[in-house]
Write a structure and sequence with these properties.
The structure is a homotetramer of 140-residue chains. With 140 residues, chain A is α+β, with helices and mostly antiparallel strands. Chain A has one domain: Roll (Thiol Ester Dehydrase, Chain A). The first copy, chain A, is built from three helices and eight strands; from the N terminus they run H-H-E-E-E-E-H-E-E-E-E. Chain A has a six-stranded antiparallel sheet with strand order 1-2-6-7-8-5.
């Protein structure tokens, strides 16, 4: 039942091939928190040399999904209902790490908090909160 | 000074090569509103056959940027400060259209509203609001 | 089954006595939209002479609830799940009006959009989106 | 220059008399974090016996403002630009506590995170993020 980091990486990469292209990987899994990584990719840069906002949003969303899978097991029909993100600081030219934490584990929704960092720095470059909606049956 | 739809498409595609891959295109430009399109791309699908959330977030963000460029002209250092998105309905297997409208044109920030539709349908599939931060000088 | 503006005003004022103090009133009800009003109250002013943010948030929340009641009838257990608000412009020293519109009417959630105006002006002073969660049974 | 908890309580209560009515008080001040309290008040209850959403939003907003004052000193023209709140759990019939933390201290904006608790419980009942806009001069 419990999924490993490799299991969750495989589920997400199979589900969305584009996320595999970005070198998305779940690094660490614990009951209420996961850490995920996106490789620094020059194709994702925007003017000024920083990772694009959508790259950060995609990582935030994938990290939230990974945290839901880590808690509930394979549950492909969970869908993002809401995501709110604040961009705080220009990321460094480095891999991007996301720590997703479950704030509320409800029957119908999961609310999560994600902090993102450039590898090698302690500054939060973006902060997101979001809600995943669970399928009516609860778990598959 | 005024940019056409083709100009803005070129600026955004040059700035972020990955957006060119997605077939992103500005379709219509008017003073307070732009319409943008992302091609339906099977690589962006998620389980269940729908376009992925990040594809929709990327389009929302690009449409907001396009609306800022349409109003202010070439301004490459405008950056997303905040984006909030609600996913309302499963998109159809079709191109995705985004209408971005300026709610507030401030000296330091622009606040925008984006509604997204599947081509051929009038249902709003996602709704986003966001804030772009302008460079201190106002315009470049 | 269908509630009038006066019915909805009474339900909300009975439910939250503090909202009655603020002179909250539903003005107009139609299937997908309601208009609500809060009286200009000097006690709600903040430094600079403007209505306080919380006054505007309270009106946005009440207007969303009013729109849910207008659509579904008496449903006291609907609760706010998420609210996101952007403050756009300093309100005038005047009553505050809120137009709430339903973006999505789901089985478990209602997503709404609220625009707020100072009476006598067409400028949007604040824009909110929010999600109400419906009781599992759907309707009471 | 540095303000105490009592100073900040006085500034906020003088600025918005309605917040004084709610028994708002800053409890603890440290450089990047403040803790604030709102008294449990039966007039703020909504059907079901819980504190109303607007009461929680008002506390979140005041706690963010308190954290800005704690960091920058007396700065009456800072205004809320955006607030996003997720309601996670029904609060207990008890005082409400809010811990506000600064995520980003920029020249033009401050981004904050607020967690709210019912006194005597460790469960987060609501979580907010928000942006305060600073006056152009930086500090008064």
């Amino acid at each position: 039942m419990t999924l490993t980091a490799a299991d969750i990486t495989a589920i997400i990469s199979a589900g969305v091939p584009a996320s595999a292209d970005s070198g998305f990987r779940v690094e660490t899994v614990s009951p209420g928190m996961v850490v995920c990584r996106t490789h620094y990719d020059e194709r994702q840069l925007r003017p000024g040399g920083t990772l694009s906002g959508p790259t950060m949003m995609a990582l935030a969303d994938a990290a939230m999904y990974a945290a839901v899978l880590a808690r509930l097991g394979r549950l492909e029909m969970a869908v993002t209902q809401n995501l709110n993100i604040n961009f705080l600081k220009r990321p460094l030219p480095a891999d991007l790490l996301a720590c997703a934490e479950i704030l509320k584990m409800g029957k119908r929704t999961v609310v999560l908090d994600v902090k993102m960092y450039s590898e090698g720095s302690q500054d939060v470059v973006a902060h997101a909160t979001g809600t995943y909606s669970l399928p009516p049956a609860g778990r598959e």
